[in-house]
Amino acid sequence: MNKKKTGFFSENKAIIIEWLFISLILLIFFLLILNQSPLRIGQILIDWNHKWEWANQWYGLFAVFWIEILILIFIWDLLWIRLNELVNAIYNDLAHKCIKKKWFLLKLVRFKYGYNKLSYHMRSGLINYALGGNDRPELIDYIGKPTLSEIMKAILSLLFSKVSILAGILTLLTFNDQLINTLQNTIINMWNENAFFIWNNFTKLSATVVLVLILFLGYFVSRRGIIRRAVAQANRKKLEEVVLKHRELSHYIIDLISTGSKNIDYAINCYDLIVECYAYKIQPNSSIPAQRRWVAQRYKESKDFLFEDIPALDAFILEINEMKLAENSYISRWFLKSKYEFTALFIFNSFKLELDRINRLLFTKKGFVEMNKPPEKFSRHTDSDFNEMIFETVKVETNEFKKYILERYIIEGTELIFGLYRYLKVLETILSIDSDKFGRGLRALTNKE
After folding, report:
1. What is the count of structural domains for the chain?
2. DSSP code of residue 161
3. What is the residue range of 247's domain?
């Protein structure tokens, strides 16, 4: 009993110690905020930045702020990554312990889904970009390696990113008052000079406008302009096809949620029977299935359990595979990234959306037969070999089946059903005829429907 209680702490000792240290730092920071006002803390940071010799120039102060913001984002991402590991460890431990308490298991799944959504929106993804890569690169990795021009574009995009804008605003506000006054006066003088220039050369302005229009017209009738318009129209048609496929997909998902939830509910209710049936397949004469002899009479095979197949599953997989085709994949991924519920189901959990995998996660009759097969080493044993098997061997195999197969599929199956449900709810909101009334009115007004 003590081993079970301390199992979580012993397995996750490093994470717990790390978070105790992080909590101590956060506590010190919180106490610092209580003792000092935010304005005072900001003033201390500004004074510290101005102590650097190279911060005497505006570009040096900009660089200091830019580096500090980048470091803060990196630390923020790192905290969320470590917090994710801690939450996942606690979640897995509680889910396995409360596998028979359906209401509590569903509460855990809902909490985990909501937490993952929060983490998805709160993280910047900086660490993923910095540490991404393959330890053993293959040929395709070298083919897809960015060129020098692409690297320069990435550097420029970083220089003109939100980090640079924020660093520029802080530099403008904290460098000195004279800089702000000089910049303000410069803008006013430029505005006045340009206003007088435009007024004095108003007659020439119309000719300039005509010249610009001619240049735009030349672009529209050029080969590049025609190709761009054709690509835009083709992408629009592809996007409409992807939306229609998601509409069709929603009809199949209703059957998956309905039948899958019944199967998982039945698996939880028959949890002990499934374990005893598995133990009986390994060793009919062991003391584990001997607790209830009628199990061996009524549940000799996996097909004796009352799980149901899902007829709509094949059509569901077919629709998903069509969206993965090369002609639809780019547009489909672009559409999926519009909502977290779409991204979570079809990108983060794409490995679950395979026929054999879904059959097991939703406990269909086919999936349960595959799941409940005993290891091959036991299927080759003779009766005399079985009689020689000790109780501990059967117990170890049965416990591994419970934790790593039966319980894992119940938990992941519940997660899949909840993910399908959230996808369905969001998709219904998007595809509803009453949605986006303001947008439809605006498009009708501008004749862009």
Report:
1. 2
2. S
3. 230-445
